[in-house]
TrEMBL record:
Gene Ontology molecular-function annotations: zinc ion binding
Keyword Metal-binding: yes
Species in which this protein is naturally found: Bimuria novae-zelandiae CBS 107.79
Protein name: MYND-type domain-containing protein
Domain MYND-type per the UniProt entry, residue ranges: 25-61
Length: 482
């Protein structure tokens, strides 16, 4: 591989990126086994490099975040936060709309639940992503196929957002056209570019510890996903497909998974994500090139898919089209039920639903008393404890004080969503019955409530949910032909 390309796959980690030689910017390219003990998020090759980079690094190593004197920008500027007028519960982004999906994408296939690896090695597999959003679900799904899979697989992806599709097509063509070592960094930077919106950034960092906050802010400043100390000198052309500003690239992946990839700089979350994606995408690129996978991409209203797509599918993933705020489950079942493979062809053919807002909508219909009923008091104590708020002090907090914002953001996590979801659950059962489907007795792809908070949840788990913008109201449902 040409050295100028290799640099993107293996970016030099020595944080002496501002080094000048003969008045020319020449970032150090040595191996960097030492970590700055002050912050734990940059690495150096030597004490010489660390010393020569001191002035530059001090800004980050001793920033307001790191010294504990940080307050959100809206508080510092004594103004109302921007998200008060643009609540992120409504889809409103500068980038492609469906980037919200990034935080929920799921693999939709588990070999183990399809009669085991042996059975599916040569099987024809048809997978439909009816409202696919970004290609995270495709990446995750391909990696779940058995390595020795030799069957013919067709992945049909649809999204009615032209920008989202444009980016997906280019990402997939990149994989098919270039060697994995070249396509991997192209994919990372084409996909994960994410410019800044200050208030959303600050609100999202409320659940972060100081070093995590500093690394997020640094990432948002450049928009480029790289380990903290890396030079961004080569990144001179803005990406035409930025992620929406609500989106945080960390959201789509599980924190314990990517943190395992952290190098010596253990506090660098975005660096860890870079290394995690590098290995995940490289594996994905190799698999795609070795397997018989065909892609078909549509840019249309999902309700018209049955008119153009004549395949029958093993898996149909429709994201949250089934939610009350979109089609409701009845239309979703009528539209996609007939597209499943027959029981004879594949007894475990599954239609996967995700409800994001149904339980929350039910909660919003309740009056104060009803809400208190659906919000077990025992859990209120958990919230106070987890946020380190004393009940007495709560009323005296200013409305936009970080703790009040966090309270508003978090209290929703503690509702008993299972109860609030009952009316929707009944609607799905009824409609499934009328259309020859049924809810699977036991989920085989994803748990019904993958992100709920339990009375036994720890502060760490709770903060992880906050960092990943999960509310606990996400409800998955798996349906099959009756
Ligand atoms: Zn440092
Ligand atoms: Zn160096």
């Amino acid at each position: 591989m040409a050295p100028e390309v290799a640099k993107f796959l293996n970016p030099p980690l020595c944080a002496n990126s501002q080094r000048t030689v003969d008045d020319k910017l020449l970032p150090c390219e040595n191996e960097a086994p030492f970590v700055c003990s002050g912050c734990q998020f940059v690495q150096y090759c030597s004490t010489e490099c660390q010393q020569s980079d001191r002035k530059h690094h001090k800004v980050n190593c001793k920033s307001a975040f790191m010294t504990g004197t940080w307050v959100p920008a809206w508080l510092k500027d004594k103004r109302k936060p921007a998200f008060v007028d643009a609540p992120d519960t409504k889809i409103k982004t500068y980038g492609p709309q469906n980037d919200r999906q990034l935080s929920r994408h799921q693999h939709c296939f588990q070999a183990a639940h399809n009669g085991g690896t042996d059975r599916i090695v040569n099987q024809v597999l048809n997978l439909l992503f009816a409202a696919s959003g970004d290609i995270g679900n495709i990446v995750k799904t391909v990696r779940r196929l058995p390595k020795e899979y030799q069957g013919n697989c067709t992945m049909v992806c649809n999204d009615n957002d032209f920008q989202v599709n444009g980016r997906n097509v280019i990402l997939l063509m990149t994989v098919l056209h270039f060697e994995p070592e070249v396509s991997t960094p192209i994919m990372i930077h084409l996909w994960m570019f994410n410019p800044e919106q200050v208030d959303i950034r600050d609100r999202n960092t409320l659940a972060f510890d100081p070093a995590q906050r500093e690394t997020l802010v640094n990432f948002r400043r450049t928009g480029v996903l790289l380990p903290f100390g890396c030079s961004t000198k080569e990144f001179t052309v803005p990406n035409p497909w930025p992620l929406g500003w609500m989106v945080n690239p960390l959201h789509g992946w599980d924190e314990p998974d990517y943190m395992k990839h952290a190098q010596v700089a253990k506090a660098d979350h975005y660096g860890a994500l870079f290394f995690f994606l590098r290995s995940t995408l490289q594996e994905f690129c190799v698999l795609i090139r070795n397997m018989n996978i065909k892609f078909r991409v549509y840019n249309r209203d999902a309700s018209t898919l049955p008119q153009v797509e004549k395949l029958q599918f093993d898996r149909i993933e429709i994201s949250s089209l089934c939610d009350e705020s979109y089609w409701g489950p009845e239309t979703a079942i009528r539209t996609f039920g007939p597209m499943l493979k027959s029981k004879h062809e594949n007894p475990s053919a599954t239609l996967l639903f995700l409800f994001l807002s149904s339980a929350v909508n039910e909660m919003e219909k309740l009056d104060f008393e009803g809400q208190m009923h659906a919000f077990p008091l025992s859990r209120k104590k958990i919230l106070w404890e987890l946020l380190s708020v004393t009940p007495g002090k709560l009323n005296s907090l200013e409305k936009h004080e970080p703790q009040s914002v966090a309270m508003a953001q978090c209290s929703v996590m503690l509702f008993n969503f299972d109860r609030l979801f009952q009316p929707m659950h009944r609607r799905v059962i009824r409609s499934a019955l009328e259309n020859g489907l049924r809810i699977k007795n036991k989920h085989t792809i994803v748990k019904p409530w993958p992100w709920s908070i339990f009375d036994s949840s720890t502060k760490d788990e709770f903060n992880m949910m906050r960092r990943h913008s999960r509310s606990g109201a996400e409800r998955y449902m798996e349906l099959q032909l009756a």
